[in-house]
Design a protein that fits this description.
- The chain has 17 helices and eight strands.
- With about 500 residues, it is mostly helical.
- It has a domain of about 280 residues.
- Helix 9 crosses helix 13 and helix 11 packs antiparallel against helix 12.
- It is globular.
- The N terminus is likely disordered.
Amino acid sequence: MRPRAALIAASGAALLTGWPLVSGLRAADYGQMGQTFPIIETDLLTTIETRLAALEANGGIARMQRQMQEQAVASVRRPKPVGGMTPAIAKREWLFDPSIVTEDDIVDAKGNLIAARGTRVNPLDMVQLSQALVFIDGDNGRVTIEPYAYEEADSHLTGNLWAQDWTALYEWIEPYPGEPSLDVTRALQKAKYDAVKMVKTGEGFFTSMGLDPLPATFWERSLLEQPPPPRKVVCHASAWDVELNNDLRIKMCIKIDHEDLVTIHHELGHDYYYNNYYTLPVLFQNGAHDGFHEAIGDAVALSITPGYLKDIGLLSEVSTNEKGVINKQMQDALQKVAFIPFGLLVDKWRWGVFAGTTTPASYNADWWKLRAELQGVAPAAPRGEEHFDPGAKYHIPGNTPYMRYFLSHIIQFQFHKAMCEAAGFEGPLHECSVYGNKAAGDRLKAMLALGSSKPWPEAMAQLTGSREMDGAALLEYFAPLKAYLDEQNAGRTCGWSGT
C-alpha cells in the first residue's frame, strides 16, 4: 500500500474505533511523487480587469452607460401603465376604500407580530394623498380632459430647495430633444483657457465698449482659483471694491466652463460699476437703487450670444437653427422667469412681518400662502407652525432685503434693450450683443458714473431714456419661446388655483 493510502486507511480506522489520531501521526517531507502540473487558471481579478480594459478600449463601457441612461429616461418618459384601469366613459364620483384584510399573521424576522390575521389596514391612515391624481391613456388620441382648477405643484419637483430656479426640469421638458446645443465648455477647454484667460475675456468685453482696463491691483489681489490645502475659502463668486478707492477684486474658484464664463462677465459688471463711481463721496458709492447693481452684471451677460462667442474665437460659425433657439430660451426662462415670483414673495413676506399682518402664529402658513399664489407650488408634505420654512432662505434670518433680485430680473432686459438701441442693432433682441460698441459703452458709463448721487429714475433715464421700470423688454427677449408655448398650449387651461 502506498504511504498516502495507508495514512487514509489508518485515519479512517482511528475515527471508527475512537482511537486518538494525533498521537500516531508524524510530520515528514516525503518529496515529490508522480508528475505535477502548474496552475494555469488566470486569477479571477485579473480576468475581470482584462475584460473591463477591453470593453473600455472598444467603447463597450460607454455603450452600456448610454443604454442604462436611455433606459432610465425611457422608463420616466414612458412609465408602465397602471394595471386594471379602463377608460372613463361617463363622469361620476364614488368613494373607494383601499383597505385590505390580512389573511395570515404577519411577523417580522424575529417572530414579533406586526398584524394579526383578520386585521383591517387602510394605507391612507399612514400616508395622506396631498393632491389630485389624474390618469391619462397617452396612446388614446380620443382622450379629452375637462378644464378644472389645477393644484399647485410640489415645490421639491423643481429640483431647487426654494423652487426659485427650475433649470433642473429642462431635461424633462426640452422642447426639441436631441437638438444640438452650443458646447462652449468644450470650446474653452479645447482653446486651453485658464482662470486668468477667462477673466481677461470678460475684461475684454468691457474695454471693447470703451471702458477702462482693470487696475493692476485687481490681478494682484483677486482670488481666481481654489488655493491649495490646508487653506479653505468660500468659493461663492463675489465682486469687491475693498477700500472704496478702486481697489477692485473678484473672489471665485473659477472652473473652465460656460457657466463660469457668464458668471465672470456678471461679477465684472459689479466691478465696473465700482470703477465708475468710486470718485464720488462714499455715501453715493452705490447703485441707483438695490436692483441696479445686479442688473448691470446680468444685462452684460445677456450679450454673451453665439455672435459674441464667434467674435472672440470660441465658435467657428453662428447657427440660426430655430429649434436650437427655442431650447436655449427654455433653459434661460427656467432660471430667469421662474425666479421672478420668488424674488417678489420673499420681501412681501418680510414686509408682512414688519407691518404686523403676518404674526408668529401664522409665519409658516403665510409663507406657503404666498408661494401658492405667486409661484404655484405647495409643500410636499403638511407643514405647520411648528416649522419655520422661511428661515431656510438666508436673507430672511440675515435680514437682507431681497427686492434687489426681483427688480434686477426685470430691468436687466430693459438695460440690454437700451444698449442694443444705442448700438444701432436691428434684429431680435435675444440675438443682440453690444460687444465692441463704443456708443453703447458711452451710454452705460454715463449711468454708472452717477452711482446713487441722483434719484434712480434719473439714472434709469440716462441709459434707457425712460424714468420708469418696464417689463416689456423681457417679453420681447423671450418672444420666440412665448410663441412656441402659445402653440403648444393651444386649447389648454393653464395655471393653478393659488389657494
